[in-house]
Amino acid sequence: MTTIARHLRARLKGWGGVGAMATACALALVFALALTCAGAPAGAPSRTAGQTVSHSARAQADEDCTAPEKQTLSPSDADGPTIEEIRNRRGEKRKLVVGVDQNSYRWGYRDPNSGKSGALEGFDIDLVHRIAEDILGDRDAVQFKAIPTDQRIPAIKAGRVDMVVRTMTINCARIEDVAFSAPYFRTGQQVLAPRSSPVEGYDETLANQEICTAAGSTAHAKLEADKEAGRLPASTDIRTTVPNQLDCLVRLQLGEVDAVVTDGALAASQAAQDPTVQLKGGAFTTEYYGVAMKKDADDLVRRVNRILVDFREDTTDGWQDAYTEWLSATLGDDSSRSRPPAPEYLRES
Predict the structure, then answer these.
(1) Can you give the pLDDT at residue 55?
(2) Strands 185-187 and 287-289: what pairing?
(3) How far apart are alpha carbons 116 and 103 in whole angstroms?
(4) How far is Cα 136 from Cα 282, in angstroms, rounded to an integer?
(5) What is the pLDDT of residues 307-333, one digit of tens each?
(6) Is residue 13 predicted with pLDDT exceeding 60?
(7) Among 294, 322, 337, 345, which Cα is nearest to 128's?
(8) Which is it for strands 179-180 and 292-293: parallel, antiparallel or unpaired?
(9) pLDDT for the residue 21
(10) Which DSSP symbol is given to 134?
(11) Which pLDDT score is estimated for 49?
């Protein structure tokens, strides 16, 4: 990309302009530092306590992982040690501690024009409030912690958060470290580039292009695997990684990279923030978002899966309402491509 082209890209305006975007990303980083696979069909899950899944059965499922979105426990309303620990917190600390994003437009972000004093809002945030209401009886009993993409799993394992609800893809590598709920959203990786770019999608037009991805993301893992296997042009530069995926949009606006690869659901929101960029080509993977929790938090996983059953089925204040409010403007009115299939769970012993 020429120097002139880079200066032209630097003049482009996005959501609040490049300066505002860069400021938002900087604030997000400061805030984050400060706060710092096959199962049986579900059918109609019971509201009683679920049976135990032996450690050997779970280990075997992890080892044989081919459908990670099915490697989760059946729903239950029963309380357990993890939920009791959350409920026994006293005073101001009696809150659900959740790792989220605060700069993913329409997912988890602070809209300065919303009139809500900068409160977090979006599809993921609605789901968090629903979980808090079920477990603690108060939808606002939440302590949000903004965490970078590559710190989601470390935050869970270190106990800094009870769960992560942050457009987090369920995959086989991650289920070795954390437990996931059933899927609550379906998406796939896509390419985002300037409208005038010669890039046409995830294909040979990425030759000699510099691509930005978030560190620790499934997008970056996919690029690395495809580069090594020769499925990506050898001249494609995939070295640029950033802490949060929104930082890639800023890099793109500044002309520092030629394209971004991220989840299509996030890429569509980024395109909505800056009309000078667009999605190039269709999704080239199929992925599912899940709520991530500690590996041994079985009771919490089961409770979240119970909440997700109701969230998907509710005709008011449920999944469809959240999609319509937050995502229809960027993904379109037809939600069928984003709605995950009926959940499947690990076989119980």
Answers:
(1) 53
(2) antiparallel
(3) 16
(4) 41
(5) 999 999 998 999 999 999 999 999 999
(6) no
(7) 322
(8) antiparallel
(9) 41
(10) H
(11) 41
* Whole-structure pTM value: 0.83
Which residue type does 50 have?
G
DSSP states of 316-331: SSSHHHHHHHHTHHHH
**pLDDT tens-digit readout, 66-77:** 899 999 999 999
* 145: exposed, middle or buried (Cβ count in 10 Å: 0-12, 13-18, 19+): buried
Can you tell me which residue has the tokens 């079985």?
A: 298
Tokens of 314: 């509710």
Residues 235/207, Cβ–Cβ less than 8 Å: yes
Tokens describing residue 157: 């394992």
User: Tokens 């059953």 appear where?
Assistant: 309
Q: Count the residues in the chain.
A: 349
Query: What is the phi/psi pair of residue 345, to 5°?
Result: -130, 165
CA distance 28 to 248: 14
Cα dist from 234 to 208, 209, 258, 279, whole Å:
8, 10, 16, 23
Provide the token pair at 228: 């090594």
Using CA atoms, how far apart are residues 51 and 87, in angstroms rounded to an integer?
23
The SS3 call for residue 25 is helix
Contacts of 72 (CB under 8 A, 6+ apart): 39, 179, 180, 181, 182, 290, 301, 305, 343, 345, 346
Give SS3 for 5: helix
Are the C-beta atoms of 329 and 271 separated by less than 8 Å? no
User: Cβ contacts of residue 204 below 8 Å, gap of 6+?
Assistant: 233
DSSP-derived 3-state class of residue 333: coil
The residue to which tokens 């989601």 are assigned: 152
> Comparing C-alpha atoms, which of 158, 126, 48, 112 is closest to residue 291?
126
Per-residue pLDDT tens digits for 275-296: 999 999 999 999 999 999 999 9
Count Cα neighbours of 277 within 13 Å in the Cβ-side half-sphere: 31
